[in-house]
């Protein structure tokens, strides 16, 4: 039996704080997430055992009194680890922070302590749904096909062969829990966990359903009607409760993740819709009626005389209906003004005449030169 002080690499006269620090450093060093060497696990077990004794002043005193040899003979592993709460010790030495377990240390602890998870719940499923912008803007009802586990049609989801009796589980003798000794990184510990055979219920069916093999579920592709509210945004997930995988111990949910398909004419900007049109320069100058696209089809608008290039035309209430609201965003149409690239002789004359009228440049060469 190795001396616990040697295991932690501390002198016999160490303070409790020094022991704690030595343990912390070693636990970090041999943690299996960091240390992949073959003996890391047994090493960590040894360190834990040493700390279980030396980290507790009362046990440490007895250890000091008896010495390693006699202490080992007198005290069982169970004695050594009694009162040794891993979770508290971890928190105490700040390991839960160092291991990046975030807000959910449960995953790590259950792995360490060999605890069994409870009866398995049905899985939740994710379905990515492509929607046209028009559907997003107004809301839509969609039929989708979802492949999931549903309740077995033969046994109604119970897993029992129809007509068979419910009997006491002989694995746990009806207790629903089994006690077993588990070798963990912290040494052998007694673990009480849900019985695998009856999933903690203490009862089993005398005969399992022949159709589903006793699981209570069957895989099926089913049509699901989804009500998409107006104004949903990309990446948003709608939850359909209980529409995921079936399990006797709880159904999973179905999540519908929204993805809006690109639109050839429109872009979405929050609740607003953006579009652009290109008009001839004389329409921009003179103004007039025009039809611009909206999500609901063409709409007549009036182009003001003297409309400048790249100006936005506001069409109120033609955007996306607000999520969980009744009002709508707007459509903003950017007006591009197109200049003719080629002019006929007559058109050219007209434009020249316009210039003359504007700045009287005909007889004045200085006015033919533009300085900006
Ligand atoms: Zn069945
Ligand atoms: Zn059982």
Portion of residues in helices? 25-40%
Name the CATH homologous superfamily of the domain at 4-113: DnaJ domain
And the CATH topology of the domain at 4-113?
Helix Hairpins
Portion in beta strands: 25-35%
Q: Give the averaged pLDDT, no decimals.
A: 85
What CATH first level of the domain at 4-113 would be assigned? Mainly Alpha
Count of runs of 4 or more consecutive helical residues: 11
**What is the makeup of the main sheet?**
4 strands, mixed
Which residues form runs of ≥5 with pLDDT under 50? Answer: 96-117
Describe this structure in words.
With 372 residues, this protein is α+β, with helices and mostly antiparallel strands. Among the domains are: 4-113, DnaJ domain (Helix Hairpins, Orthogonal Bundle), CATH 1.10.287; 267-338, Urease metallochaperone UreE, N-terminal domain (HSP40/DNAj peptide-binding domain), CATH 2.60.260. It is built from eleven helices and 15 strands. Strands 10-11-15-14 form a four-stranded mixed β-sheet. It has a three-stranded mixed β-sheet with strand order 1-9-8. Helix 2 (16-30) runs antiparallel to helix 3 (40-54). Bound molecules: zinc ion (2 copies).
Topology:
Elements: H1 4-8, H2 16-30, H3 40-54, H4 57-74, H5 77-81, H6 86-93, H7 95-98, H8 106-113, E1 125-131, H9 133-138, E2 140-151, E3 166-168, E4 177-184, E5 187-194, E6 203-205, E7 217-228, E8 237-240, E9 254-260, E10 267-269, E11 272-280, H10 281-286, E12 288-294, E13 297-303, E14 311-315, E15 331-338, H11 345-359
Parallel strand pairs: 1-9, 11-15
Antiparallel strand pairs: 2-7, 3-6, 4-5, 8-9, 10-11, 12-13, 14-15
Helix pairs in contact: 2-3
One zinc ion binds at residues 169, 171-172, 176, 195, 197-198, 202.
């Amino acid at each position: 039996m190795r001396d616990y002080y040697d295991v932690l690499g501390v002198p016999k006269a160490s303070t409790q704080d020094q022991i704690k620090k030595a343990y912390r450093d070693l636990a970090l060093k041999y943690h299996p997430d960091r240390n992949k060497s073959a003996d890391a696990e047994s090493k960590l077990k040894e360190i834990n055992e040493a700390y279980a004794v030396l980290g507790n002043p009362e046990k440490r005193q007895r250890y000091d009194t008896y010495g390693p040899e006699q202490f080992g003979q007198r005290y069982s592993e169970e004695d050594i680890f009694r009162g040794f709460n891993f979770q508290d010790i971890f928190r105490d030495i700040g390991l839960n922070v160092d291991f990046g377990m975030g807000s959910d240390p449960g995953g790590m602890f259950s792995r360490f302590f060999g605890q069994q998870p409870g009866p398995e719940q049905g899985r939740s499923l994710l379905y990515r749904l492509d929607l046209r912008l028009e559907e997003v803007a107004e809301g839509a009802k969609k039929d989708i096909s979802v492949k999931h586990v549903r309740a077995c049609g033969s046994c109604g989801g119970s897993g029992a062969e129809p007509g068979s009796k419910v009997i006491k589980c002989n694995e746990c003798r009806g207790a629903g829990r089994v006690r077993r000794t588990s070798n963990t990184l912290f040494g052998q510990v007694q673990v009480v966990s849900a019985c695998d055979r009856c999933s903690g219920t203490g009862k089993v069916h005398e005969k399992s359903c022949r159709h589903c093999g006793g699981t209570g579920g069957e895989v099926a592709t089913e049509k699901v009607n989804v009500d998409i509210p107006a104004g949903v945004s990309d990446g948003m997930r709608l939850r359909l409760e209980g529409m995921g995988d079936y399990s006797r111990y709880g159904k999973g949910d179905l999540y519908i993740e929204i993805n809006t398909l690109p639109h050839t004419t429109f872009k979405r900007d929050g609740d607003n819709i953006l579009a652009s049109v290109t008009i001839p320069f004389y329409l921009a100058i003179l103004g007039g009626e025009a039809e611009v696209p909206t999500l609901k089809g063409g709409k007549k608008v009036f182009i003001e005389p003297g409309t400048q290039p790249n100006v936005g035309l506001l069409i109120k209430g033609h955007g996306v209906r607000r999520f969980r609201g009744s009002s709508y965003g707007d459509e903003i149409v950017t007006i591009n003004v197109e200049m003719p690239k080629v002019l006929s002789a007559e058109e050219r004359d007209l434009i020249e005449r316009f210039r003359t009228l504007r700045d009287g440049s005909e007889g004045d060469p200085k006015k033919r030169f533009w300085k900006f």
